[in-house]
Amino acid sequence: MRSFIAIPVSPSGQISKVLSELGLWRRQGLKPVEPENMHLTLKFLGEIDPGRVPEIVEAIERAIEDHSPFRVQFKGMGAFPNENYIKVVWVGIDSDGLGPLASDVIDAMAGLGFERSKFSAHLTLARVKGPKPRERIQEMIADNRDRDLGRLDVDSIYLMKSTLTPAGPIYDEVSRIELAGTSSLSVQE
């Protein structure tokens, strides 16, 4: 089972507008992330034995037991690896709670034998697969570099299953793990 640990994101109105604009360039090799697949990846696990799910969930529960709900602010846009060679278009993240949460989850998974990875706080908007309108994407990034693009109240994280298909990935929730003092997850303008 291909899996990862993440925080699902329902795009705000501002992010939805940016996704729509990026969608205009599909024929030029740019593939926007489907709104229902948007998420903040905390840790990609890769292929796991489904029998390990209880052990993984228990380790996540222990790792996040001292973390309270927090807010993520989506702000600005950028590109990986850089704006002159664009492979991924992303939205920036501003949050005091996300980095420590990701660090504790990564440490917990390393304790189970998963490779320790570096956390990069971003929300992927699109991947670039071929020729692209580089200048137009650079202009879009410049126009949105410091722009507020919404926020997300985080009260839980998810162990997700990823099934790769020719039409794109399908993500399914395996387990939802709530942060201390949880109420609900919402996206606001």
Main β-sheet description: 6 strands, antiparallel
Which word captures the global form? globular
What's the number of extended β-strand segments?
10
Tell me the strand order in the biggest sheet: 2-6-5-4-7-10
Number of helices: 4
Strand content: 35-45%
Q: What structural class results from the helix and strand content? A: alpha+beta
| Residue-averaged pLDDT | 90
> N- to C-terminal separation?
35 Å
What's the arrangement of secondary structure elements?
Blueprint: E1 2-8, H1 13-23, E2 30-32, E3 39-47, H2 53-64, E4 70-82, E5 85-94, H3 98-111, E6 122-128, H4 134-144, E7 148-154, E8 156-163, E9 170-178, E10 186-188
Antiparallel strand pairs: 1-3, 1-8, 2-6, 4-5, 4-7, 5-6, 7-10, 8-9
Helix pairs in contact: 2-3
What does this structure look like?
The protein has 189 residues and is α+β, with helices and mostly antiparallel strands. It has one domain (2-182): Alpha-Beta Complex (Cyclic Phosphodiesterase, Chain: A). Helix content is 25%, strand content 40%. It is built from four helices and ten strands; from the N terminus they run E-H-E-E-H-E-E-H-E-H-E-E-E-E. The protein has helices at residues 13-23, 53-64, 98-111, 134-144, and strands at residues 2-8, 30-32, 39-47, 70-82, 85-94, 122-128, 148-154, 156-163, 170-178, 186-188. The longest helix is centred in the middle third of the chain and has 14 residues, at 98-111. It is globular and about 45 Å long. The relative contact order is 0.27.
